[in-house]
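Chapter review: from sequence to fold.
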Amino acid sequence: TLSPETEHALVDAWKAALKFGHAEVLPIHLFGALLFSGKAAVVFGRVEKFGKGKLTKYRLSEIKKHLALK
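The token string follows.
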């Protein structure tokens, strides 16, 4: 059984795939869905910490703007 948050993310990923005319849900669709839900911020924080600051030139808002899923 999936949690409600997981189910919501999968539905949003499916909608993103449809929006872009893709026949299947790809990792980028799921990532975008998580990004817009606010859950990906935790991942970015961890990557930033362990990646030694390599993401500092990117901001979450800039990534959201480029994905433009919603």
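Two observations follow directly from the output. Residues 35 and 64 are 7 Å apart (CA to CA). The chain has four helices and no strands.
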